[in-house]
């Protein structure tokens, strides 16, 4: 029974490690000493066209972003105004092509394989040493949603936040946009 608990615990730890690699990451910056409580109304600027590889340049993605963003901005206590809002928001969607190394898992060791205890190459449980070396590269895509807040009177960006995530499937990425937008607005300097 202890053996099964150990295997389950190990499997759970590995699963959590791999799932942590695909989480959203958030970064933010703002103008220091800016009083964000002065902003009571908001509006929207046209999104900036960018290299989105057609992932987020469709009606569904734009609508998901705007619905989620309006919900989050109103949670901050701001009211939408079409006429002379205090602060203007805009977003930028970017999808980058990236690559990473693929590593081998060669090595030696002692352990229990299909024919009992012994040393050498093979599979199974055990201990030992070995090496890992790069054997190639794999391509992947990384998406960024950037939201900027522009002070309308100063015509200057006063806050910016970015939510980033690896993208494997465009449809799933679009469905995850509300969560990314929610995380971005958690970075806003004033919370209601």
From TrEMBL:
- Which chain positions lie within coiled-coil regions? none
Protein origin, superkingdom = Bacteria
Keyword annotations for this protein, in alphabetical order, are: Signal
InterPro entries from the UniProt entry: DUF4136 (IPR025411)
Q: Where is the signal peptide?
A: 1-19
> Residue ranges of the DUF4136 domain?
33-189
Q: Does the keyword Signal apply?
A: yes
Pfam families (alphabetical): DUF4136
Keyword Metal-binding belongs to the record: no
Q: Please give the PROSITE patterns that the UniProt record associates with this protein.
A: PROKAR_LIPOPROTEIN
What is the recorded name of this protein?
A: DUF4136 domain-containing protein
């Amino acid at each position: 029974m202890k053996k099964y608990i150990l295997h389950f615990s190990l499997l759970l730890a590995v699963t959590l490690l791999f799932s942590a690699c695909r989480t959203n990451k958030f970064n933010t910056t703002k103008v220091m000493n800016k009083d964000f409580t002065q902003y009571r109304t908001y509006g929207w600027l046209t999104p900036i066209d960018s290299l989105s590889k057609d992932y987020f340049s469709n009606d569904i993605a734009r609508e998901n972003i705007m619905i989620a963003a309006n919900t989050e901005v109103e949670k901050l206590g701001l009211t939408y105004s079409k006429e002379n809002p205090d602060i203007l928001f805009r977003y930028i969607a970017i999808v980058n092509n990236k690559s990473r190394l693929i590593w081998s898992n060669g090595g030696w060791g002692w352990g229990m394989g299909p024919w009992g205890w012994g040393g050498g190459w093979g599979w199974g449980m055990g201990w030992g040493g070995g090496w890992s070396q790069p054997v190639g590269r794999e391509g992947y895509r990384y998406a960024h949603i950037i939201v900027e807040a522009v002070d309308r009177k100063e015509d200057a960006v006063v806050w910016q936040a970015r939510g980033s995530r690896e993208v494997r499937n465009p449809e799933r990425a679009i469905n995850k946009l509300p969560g990314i937008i929610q995380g971005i607005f958690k970075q806003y300097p004033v919370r209601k």
